[in-house]
Structure formats: structure tokens, C-alpha cells
Amino acid sequence: MKHELIIVLDFGGQYNQLIARRVREVNVYAEVLSYETPIEEIIARNPKGIIFTGGPSVVFEENAPLIDKAIFDAGIPILGICYGSQLMGYLLGGSVARADSREYGKTDLTVDKSDPLFEGVDVSSVAWMSHTYYVSSPPSDFRITASTDTCPVAGMSNESKKLYAVQFHPEVNHTPEGTKMLKNFLVNICGCSQDWIMSDFAKDQIKLLKEKIGDKKVLCALSGGVDSSVAAMLIHKAVGKQLTCIFVDHGLLRKDEGDDVEKVFGEEFDMNLIRVNCEKQFLNKLAGVSDPETKRKIIGEEFIRVFEAEAKKIGVVDFLVQGTIYPDVIESGTKDAAVIKSHHNVGGLPEHVDFKEIIEPLRDLFKDEVRNVGRAVGIPEFLVSRQPFPGPGLAIRVIGDITKEKLDILREADYIFREEVKAAGISKGLGQYFAVLTNLKSVGVMGDERTYDYTVALRSVDTSDFMTADWSRIPHEILAKVSNRIVNEVNHVNRICYDITSKPPATIEWE
Ligand SMILES: Nc1ncnc2c1ncn2[C@@H]1O[C@H](COP(=O)(O)OP(=O)(O)OP(=O)(O)O)[C@@H](O)[C@H]1O
Ligand SMILES: O=c1[nH]c(=O)c2[nH+]cn([C@@H]3O[C@H](COP(=O)(O)O)[C@@H](O)[C@H]3O)c2[nH]1
Ligand SMILES: NC(=O)CC[C@H](N)C(=O)O
Ligand SMILES: [Mg+2]
């Protein structure tokens, strides 16, 4: 059960969890720890290697996050990335300066293949850069191992001390040779034996959950979606009947969804499941509210109140389990990352919650990793590969204020879109696809009569991690059919648009 460990030391960068994920992809277990973790604690964990992340700070400015220099003498291989590289350079006696021209985006890179980090890597390739400062001269016992036109020390190393640094980001997809470099660090330099697989994550979590929960009772917020199904399965395997799943039908679900979830979970799994119908409660609270963040907060709070009420009926329940995953956490904002939108289960949580603890076993994972855990614990493929559906449901797909009438219009339009995508056999390739009821009315003509009705937007994206996404190139004939059916079959819709923006700059959902 004990795995070789890589510690990703967090200096506030945007891609920290992505680094951990890339390491896990090479079958090495990684954990992200704050840079403030005492170095005795880091060493006591006996890591095979440490990766310093990027970060927004400037090493020589006041309050910049630093680390005790003793870490470099612990005999543990270290890879510094971006800010991490500057930190290594600065602390070991090199110099760091503001670059003459800052580099942002794809940059041509030249590497010295004789460096163990770049073994088997093309001498000339492209790297993703995002920096204003750089190492202007490396520490005296380092040599330069990579450069770009404007960055003299894009890579440096001290092979005998096993210290390596790069100014660019090997962890992002835009650095095509990045994975090879990380693998070189992990396998060749740290000597990792690649002993970690996703099914181990499931096993480890089940064991941890068993210890944590003991003989206490647990509620799991189950939506029927991928994340909460996987979370529920882990808990179920850990504590069996001590678990009760609560499925909230808040009136913001898709057509037939409530019945489908009840049916699937009633039939597929031997779990205690309670369906709570509370459409009125949610719609009353949401009446007249049009601000997206306010909607999310109201929904987050109501969810919890429903769970608390159900817990009271069952008796003492100590734990609430949610299927929170990493993108939910990062977009809701952290100490260092900006709030993009408050996911109802994170940023939308009320301050006071009746439960002793909220358990989120999937909090560090990306969607595709969660799917793999699901497969490892035997959840059927049709459930594991489903498209996600956000907890606040259609409330964030009806733009502006919400009414039952608008929700019903959207439900029908969305159903037609999903049905046609399925019929065309293209659903597997699409990350997420749905309809949005815009708050816009426009003029049309139907049966020689003037209409003044709603515009429905269709949204479909290709993505695997849901952090970035591109709009799907759905064939025009399919879109034509969907458009035709919606305006013909759904009352009060007279215009259909297709959303052709990627994420960023847009997000997947409209609110
Ligand atoms: N209708 C619901 N009833 C109970 N819990 C819910 C409901 N909707 C969402 N949740 C809780 O909020 C969490 C986050 O929702 P989210 O939609 O991100 O995940 P999911 O529904 O489990 O998976 P997916 O992303 O595939 O839809 C869920 O994992 C679940 O714990
Ligand atoms: O459970 C959820 N609660 C929320 O509040 C929430 N907001 C967005 N999403 C889902 O997250 C993914 C990324 O969405 P965005 O690009 O719109 O931020 C997409 O899959 C969205 O559907 C949510 N899921
Ligand atoms: N992405 C980063 O780590 C940036 C490091 C540093 N803040 C710079 O601007 O150079
Ligand atoms: Mg969902």
C-alpha cells in the first residue's frame, strides 16, 4: 500500500495540480504540499523527488515565498519549474533579473541532450512560457542546459547534486516534449519504479475511509453523475450499509432525469437511496434572482439544508460526502487562484453546516482520472462515461431569472438536442453538450404570423479535463435537424444559435 512519493511544492502557480496529475500519469504517486511545510516534515515523508511549482511572486521581493536552503543538501532530487527555477537560482547564489522581454505562450526552445532531463528529447522544440523574470546567470556549480532567443537560462542543472530547473512549463500540453522531460526526471533522475496505478488510489481511499468513518453513519450527496457515483461507490465499499445516499430532485433537472437516477441506482447498486422532491423549495428561493453567483449560493445553501433535514430523520450522522473534484475547487477560488464561478458544492457552501465533517475523496482528481477510478471499482461504463451535469442544473442554463415555464421550455429543447446527438452516434466524442435558454427574445415568422419568442443556444465542447475546452465541430446537418425540431416542437422558441467559443475565454456553462 506504500508507494514511492513525489512532493509537488506549491508556490502559488496556476498549474500545480496539473503537475501532480502529469506525475501520476507516469505511474508515480504525487502530492501537492504548501511551500510552508517544514522541511523536516518533507524529508520525513521520504520523497523520491521534489518539484517546485511556478508562482506569481518575484523571488527577491518582500514576502516572496521562499524555502530553507537546507532542502538542497538533503540528497533529494529537485526539479524547479518557472518560479521554482528562479528560486533555486536565487537561493544557490545565481542571479535573477527582470527579463528584457517577457515571454508568454509558445516559444522555440533549444536543449542540450546530454543533460539527463533532456535525454531523448528533440534538440529544438516548442515550450510554453509564462514569465517576466528569469535566471540571468546560474549558480557557479550549475551549467546551462536549455535556452530560447530571449531567455539565456531556460534550463540549468547540477547533475551531481541532482538539482534541475526549467523556466518553461513542461506540465502543460503546449510543451509537446514536456511529458518526456518529466518522465526523465521521475524515472532516470529520481529512480522511481512507477509503482502507482489508479486502482491503487481506489484501494487506498477505501482503506482510509474505513478508518476515518469507523462505525459512524454517512450521508452521500448523490446526483447520479459521474463524480458522486464514484464517491458513493468508494464509501459503499468502505462502510456498506452505514451509507445513505440522498438524491435531491430540485426541479432543475433535465427531462426524465429524476426517474432515471432512481431507477438506475435502485437497480444497479445495493445502496440505501432516498430521493427528496423539493422543486417548490428551490424555485421559491430562486424566484426573481438573475445574478449567476447569487443563484449558485442560494442553491449551495438549499442543498445543504436538505441534507441536514434528511440527516435529522436518520439520527446522528457525522459525515457528509460530496463528489467534489479538482476543477470545482480551483474555479471556486483558492488562497491564490481567482474566483471564476462558485461551484455550488465548494464556493457555494454556506458558512455553517451541521455535519462534523465533509468528506471529498476525489477532491484532487481531474475528471478523466475520476472516470478511471470509477472503472477500477466496477461502475458500469454507461455511467462512468456520461457527460457531466452541474449540481445547480438548469438554473445556470436559464439565463436571467428562473421560472417553471422557462425550465420546461429548456428541458424540451435540451432533450431534442441530446436525442439527435445520440441518434447521430457522435455522443461519445463530445465532452459535454446541452441547450441554454438565453434571456433574449427576438422576432420571427411562423405560419405567416409574427412571433416574439426565446432564443435557444446550443453548446457542445470537446475536452477531457474540463479546465480548457474547444467547441465541437458538430456536422451542420445534425445542427440543422436539431434546430428544425426545436422550433417546430417546442413552444415559445423561434431562434437557435450554436456557441462557437472555446474555454478560455468563455467557460463551458453560460453562468
Ligand atoms: N441533485 C443532486 N442531489 C444530490 N447531490 C447532488 C446533486 N447534484 C449535485 N450534487 C452533489 O454535488 C457534487 C458536485 O456536482 P457535480 O455535478 O460536479 O458532480 P456529479 O453530478 O457527481 O458528476 P458529474 O460532474 O458527472 O455531473 C456531486 O458530486 C454531489 O455530491
Ligand atoms: O457540480 C457542479 N456545480 C457547479 O456549480 C458547476 N458549475 C460548473 N460545473 C461544471 O463544471 C465544468 C466546468 O464548467 P465551466 O467551464 O462552466 O466552469 C462543466 O462540466 C460544468 O458543467 C459545475 N458542476
Ligand atoms: N509562471 C511563473 O512561475 C512566473 C514566475 C515569476 N513570477 C515571473 O514572472 O517570472
Ligand atoms: Mg452533476
UniProtKB/TrEMBL annotation:
The keyword ATP-binding applies. Pfam families: GATase (PF00117), GMP_synt_C (PF00958), tRNA_Me_trans (PF03054). Its EC number is 6.3.5.2. One of its GO terms (cellular component) is cytosol. It catalyses: XMP + L-glutamine + ATP + H2O = GMP + L-glutamate + AMP + diphosphate + 2 H(+). Keywords: ATP-binding, Glutamine amidotransferase, GMP biosynthesis, Ligase, Nucleotide-binding, Purine biosynthesis. The active site is at C82, H169, E171. One of its GO terms (molecular function) is GMP synthase activity. Pathway: Purine metabolism; GMP biosynthesis; GMP from XMP (L-Gln route): step 1/1. CDD domains: GATase1_GMP_Synthase (cd01742), GMP_synthase_C (cd01997). ATP binds at S223, G224, G225, V226, D227, S228, S229. Residues 196-386 form the GMPS ATP-PPase domain. It is an enzyme of class 6 (ligase). Catalyzes the synthesis of GMP from XMP. NCBIfam families: guaA_Cterm (TIGR00884), guaA_Nterm (TIGR00888), PRK00074.1 (NF000848). Homodimer. PANTHER family: GMP SYNTHASE [GLUTAMINE-HYDROLYZING], GMP SYNTHASE-RELATED. This is GMP synthase [glutamine-hydrolyzing]. It comes from Petrocella atlantisensis. The lineage of its organism: Bacteria, Bacillati, Bacillota, Clostridia, Lachnospirales.
